[in-house]
## 1
Amino acid sequence: MSALSLVLRDPVLRLASGLSFLLGALACTIGPYVSVLAVETFGLGDRGYAAMLALSTALSVAAALWVGIRADQTAQRRGLTLLALAAQALGLGLVALRPGVASFLLHQVLLGPVGATVFGQIFALARLAASTRPMAERDAVMGVVRALFAAPFVVVLPLWALAFREGAPVLAVYPVSFALSLAMLAVTWAFWPRDGATQWADARSGLSFGAALRELSHPRLVSRILMLGAVGSMMTLYMALAGLVLSPAIGRGPGDVALYVGLVAGLEVPFMLAVPRLTAGMGRARAILIASAIYVLHLGLMPVLAPGPWLWLLVLPAAAGGAVIITLPIAYLQDLLAERPGTGASLMALQKLAGDVMAALAFALGAWIAGYALVALIGCVLGLAAAAWLAQADRR
């Protein structure tokens, strides 16, 4: 049975996949335009946007950890997910109905980070529902759920590009996002299984909040989160560099950026669905190492090949390597805390934070010394070295 068929036949996995798809549609509806809204529409300026971004990132990580630990403590995942979705809908609704600096900041800094915790809870639910399946099928399930999060990017972004070309205001993303958040809230209310009435055992962790935090500070966990963050930083650098190296100075422009990113995102989806077959017979850490070696071909050569036609060939290693780098760390991190799926899912927020910090440092150092080509090279060395360390550590 294929992974997609497995997901479609299981009502809980079907729910997790549907929520992942709706969350992906929400993310690509509002995510790409937050910077423009902050800097231009609401007049925060570059410094104000940077401060808002730093604060919202910190609160997103804190909220993800609190919700993950609390879900494991109480085993009340349905209620916490509904709370997160309600906060998300409230924040988006306020901006949609009363757009202004106050409502925008309230959503971005407070209600949005609380709503973002639903991402981890979706994967925690999928993990629990897949726990009754053989180990080989669990990675396949996670791959499908993650692929469905990425799928809307291929369709929704071009639709918004068309809408803006026809004169739609940027603020139009908020009513649509509000509608998507209400749809997620309604689906969760109707179909999320009642706590304590599931086919799988979901025991309370028995850990205090402090004990759960101390567990997260174990060197085995911290080192792997940092290494996976370094691997993921390559994708953060790719998104940062794409719009900078495909510049009008070399005959490129926004259209080329949109086409390149769209092709990579579109090809990632079938590669994500094929990850279980492509990585069969190898451990996760080894698969991540091989995928990282493939991905550095894309990241390292993109600034070099940007002016010429060979650039378009790089979408293949970008999608093939990226699909593994995106999907396998989810199951890897969850297995580090297999008995606490909520906290395990929150590790993704810590991994992303680590990756974003490393990407920012690599960008600052490379751009200061020599330019964007060195930025890409630093990212390649950092990501590949981290993947090699991870494979060697797991082999030991």
## 2
Amino acid sequence: MLTEQAEVVEVTDEGVRVETVRRSACDSCRSQSGCGQKLLAELGQAQRFQILVANPKQFTLKPGDRIELGIEESSFLQASLITYLLPLFGLVLFALLGQGMGLAEPLQIAMGFAGLLIGFIGVRYWDRGERQGCQLQPKIVGKQKAYDFIEVEEA
């Protein structure tokens, strides 16, 4: 399960609104000093996002509580494959169809872009169906325990 830390902002009847900060994998990479990707990742660093999540375990939450969100790896992998491969498949398929029909090269390119657009639309409709099934939505999987403070007597 992929997990992320978040803070509760609001508890409603529909779910729990939480806020999380986007972090980059570059923070833990050894070659961050010589990598151009780190520069791009820093542009989107420290952005805060609020999302509405489900609370299937019925944790008692209030604003300010720290929680752990989770999503299944298989759902994440499936969504990634469909998001990237469906438009690419549409582009190649339609370009090959244009070539098979004997169209001029500019029309083959236009058909390829049409296939790409159809792939993006397909991803959009697939995403709407998955959201209704809530398979791709993160869920609250844990609540940070409050720390017990122990008073230490001074000698």
## 3
Amino acid sequence: MATKTLPVKTIKQQNLGISTILAFALIPLSGFATDIYIPSLPNMAVSLGVDDVKVQLTLSLFLISYGISQLFIGSVLDSFGRYRICLVSLFVFALSSIVIATTHNIYVIYAMRIIHGLTVGAIVVSKRAFFVDIYKGEKLKHYLSLFTIIWSAGPIIAPFIGGHFQDHFGWESNFYFLAAFALIIAALEIFFSGESLQYAIDFRIRSIVKIYVSMIRTASFSLGILMLGFAYCMVMMYNMTGPFIVEHHFNLSPVVAGYTSLFLGLAWMVGGFTGKATINKPFVGKMVMNLRLQLLAAIAMLFVLMAVDNLYVLIFFAFLIHIGAGYTYNNYFTYCLGKFPANAGIAGGLTGGVTYVIVSFLSYGIIYLFPAKDGVNLSYSYLLLIILSILVMYFVVRLNRKDKEQSFSKQQTV
């Protein structure tokens, strides 16, 4: 595929460190866009005069549009560059956040949340590709393994901030905060950042489709994306149901709901750090062991909550399950994103896009099966996702065994 240089502002060498920090600062934006108003969901339903499911749909619409955005935005970024698209997306994201904060029409909010998803997709994929553009070898591997750890700052910090915003200023303040955050980062990008892509590929649909097909047909890559989807869906299940369980079932405040989400965000971070620490361990063995521990935790959670209906018990077992989810995500995200360095934008977009499409439809479907009633229903949700992960892992193990046999046969032939 033909390449060309981009006649745009490039990153100055003295600003590379600041540009890297700004890129990391935007990695958690998808988490902020979902998690900051999670403690406000029950109050939003009352304020807007709609039922719980309609408010939960604002999360699903974001996830769907965020996923779809990533599916196609990678090829656009590889052809037209990262910098300008990211900058425009930050300004549009800020404007749509202000619209949400100033309206009480649920359908306008739906439209703005779709715009949120599209723009955040462009922002996050551009920053993932930034690292592949700039860094190579072990340093790149190091930064990629940090992604899920940095990303987990969103689920940790956002619900904590959102719970207090809700308590003091109402749900609208969450979206004013998102607007301010985006505008500040955009201003810093203008002064300190620039284009990271050195050579752009020609935007030819047929050639781009071939790249997509080649990636999807790589079985290990596709199975990895499924594992990513199931892992993040465990987190999203709590995000969509936890506030209703805490505030309606246990009759506690939005601040408490924010603290529980913060605590489970820490679990995701612990899983990410553990994944980074064991990055050189045999891949299949550690993933199988992780799923076994998750399965035991989910079964124990179900039976204990049937006997003791307690928030502390629920959060304890959810914490263990979320550690496992963070561990899975860290390992598979590093693997999938580093598999196709020549097409970093497309690989990052495809990985994130399919993952979030899986999460959006699967999470909403599971909520339909197991509504946000209590911890027992949440246990069933976790258990279903872990069983699906085990089924996918079965094929991963078979594929790994087949690759080893083929490698051994080649050695014997030589």
## 4
Amino acid sequence: MNKKLNTISLSGLMIGPILGSGIVLLPPIAIHMLGDNAIIAWIITMVMGAIFAYIFTKMSILTSSNEGVNLIVGEKLGHNFSELSSNYLTAAVCFGPVAVLYTASGFVCDIIPGANNYKIFVVFVLLLLNVFILMMGITAMGKVTLILSSLTGFILIISSIFNILDQSSITFPNALPQVTTLGSTLLLLFWAIIGWEVIGNYVEDVINPEKTLMRAMKISLFAVISIYMLTTFALQNSMNGQVITKETDINVSLILVPLFGEGSYIIMGIIAAGLCFATLIMILGAVTRQMAARAEKGALPAFLRKNEGERSPKRALILLTTFHCLLIFLIYNDFITVEWTVQIANTFFICNSLLGLVASLKCVNSILLKLLVTLLILVLIVLLAFSPFVGWLLLILVTIMSIGKNLGHIINRFQREK
């Protein structure tokens, strides 16, 4: 295979999607909950993010297939858990991208006057554009996400620094926040570190994976931490010490005002839509590659395999896109809601991450790392407890189907040996 991703292009593929819409949504939420102490929650979150990134990158290096971390899960916990992890990720990506599409379309419609009347049309245009880029192959994906990530990072960092320098005085935390409020905030901010677990699904497309993955992770981690920390610090200082209530309007666009003036909201809308789009490219690209790799092994129907000469696994992409179109139709006709798709996707994403973290306990020797990974596992279990009833039903269904399929293989093999 002609590998196309080097350190820079892989970094671009990682930074934008990991920031995602979280860079727009999460800093205001943290400030609403903690005020000037929000930066403390972000420091803790970024420390956990660094551990999360390191663990999943190390596990990704151990595999040589686009099945990714799920292979290591199988090696450490057993084959059944590998299939279970793969199916959890696939199920999550059946639902999650639809919510991202609607989020991105919301930002686009806010920029274009009257576009909210045609939101469904914008959703489908974004979906088709995403499919087009994915079918162009890994090179196009890397270039698009690199451009989006670079522009976003540059604008947010420069705007944050300019905003901080523009303040008459800088406010720092003067006390520790209440433990209960800090805990609730950390549960929400945990979503800022999700995304590192799919890096391994690109390993076949990476030049010299052992070195490139770790280098790209370090660059991406530095960029993500810098952007989140500077953005949050600049935003909480933009409030000028005012008393913050639930009704207080806090928008990341505020940090762009000193530099871009009235155009700040338009620029922020473009940034947010671009980051959502980058997330779609990375997640769908990762899962379609995983599906094709599993089809090669016989774990999925053979028609999902990537044909020789194809730039990307087109059949897997078409299958997922068809399902996304069905969900969009159901949302448009009010049979389901966007929030419903988010809840279902989150349930499966959490379970997939849980299996990866449990397996990683057998991959690291450091007692400190084991303790920190255990802490992350506990946080995810708490998050999972908030999953909706329908999410639990689908989770149980996918689990039973995954285990049932593998049990069938075991029984057949036992009968043949007998």
